[in-house]
Fold this protein.
Amino acid sequence: MKNIFIMAAASALLLISCTKEVNLPLKTVPPTIVIEGNITNEKGPYTVLLRKTVDFNNKNTYPPVEGATVTISDDAGSIDTLTETSPGVYQTATLVGTPGRTYTLNMLAEGKSYNATSTMPQPVVLDNVKFELFTSKGDSGKPEYSALPEFTDPANVANTYRFIMRVNDTLNTEYFVLNDNTFNGQKNEYILFDPGAEINAGDTVELEFRCTDRNNYLYFFTLSQFNSDGPYNTTPTNPPSNIKGDPAYGIFSAHTVQRKTTVVTP
């Protein structure tokens, strides 16, 4: 029997019902920088996004961090100074993402220093994406399918993966992450299933397959647990970050990318 792999949404929703106004003593928290940087085996430029958190009482906006000095270097001696192409968006010019290389992000923003490292794994080939009948009658009344990425995990190596799915050009916001603890060196049998979204016959599904390092896996695994159903769901907390230096949130990731687009057939 195939294993069903269910991951919940990135951010939790807090639903409050009350009959009278309640004033809660909320602490004002200083803004903290949020760093999101990605390097892949695809052609650049690669992007680092810099934002700030906001106080609970402020509007749900994330101000960009402008005027930072950002560099990315690799263990072969290459270094690239990123250009701020729009507020808070920094891009490489010459860097080439290569599996097996270790990349280091160094940054100076608002007088504070940050750094992070990530090693790009060797790619694992995504052979095919199969669709298996999950139920003969989903919420729409139509048969509902789930995706099965077909690939063979390399033996004797600890691997972690992330999957990003688009159905009919609409991004699925669930976080699907996987490690090979239970199938090292074997074919994958974990099905990607999102209880909040339907895949029907005739839908076009694009699956992006990422081979990631462990820091990336732990970061997105923690996010995936925030809104999980069932008795063992976790309380929201900041996911573990590989950003060092002054306190910061986010992730710097070097990973490989493959994509397959499939039309679902009965």
Residues 114 and 181 are 32 Å apart (CA to CA). The two ends are 19 Å apart (CA to CA). Residues 4-26, 229-235 have pLDDT under 50 and may be disordered. The chain is about 5% helix and 40% strand.
